[in-house]
Design brief:
This protein is mostly helical and 189 residues long. Helices cover 54% and strands 0% of the residues.
Length: 189
Amino acid sequence: MPKRLNFQLSEEQVMQVEQAKRKDKRAEVRQRATAVHLLHLKHEPTEVGEMLSVTEQAIYHWYHRFIQGGIEGLANQPKGRPQAKADADYRQHMEQTLATEPSELGYDFAIWTVERLRDHLTQSTGKFLSISRLRQIVREQKYVYRRPKHDLTSLQDHEAKAAAQAQIEEIKKAQEMTISHSSLWTKRR
């Protein structure tokens, strides 16, 4: 058989509960303080639950919250979003990563994609973000993804390029002399 709880409060606790019942501006605190006070007055948790139109489980929960946290333990706990994974440290690490060539970090690719960036940041920070969330953060940080421009200048023969450019210039000069200045537009007869 489970151990029966002793709902007796100390004099100081009774004073706190009575003052909260009368003067606290938060309705939930007044209701919960009333429940704790009724338990102290030897009412059964089932009976208190019926009086206040709540479950017996809620009455036990409120009592334990009062014992652990006093009157403030009876107040509603703040709700909201959990703390963001992408905090300032995460964003700073992301910026440092984007400023670094992937090859410097031991990767065999040359371009950061969002997927690759997410995988790297997950490994280095231990924080997993979805692709869409990481895209949003990258945009917030004013980064723009650009496709690389393929440049073949390193593969070109510079002497041959200069010779070809000289030939093009000669052809242009020769054409300038032979160009007719007549219009290409004519009227129909």
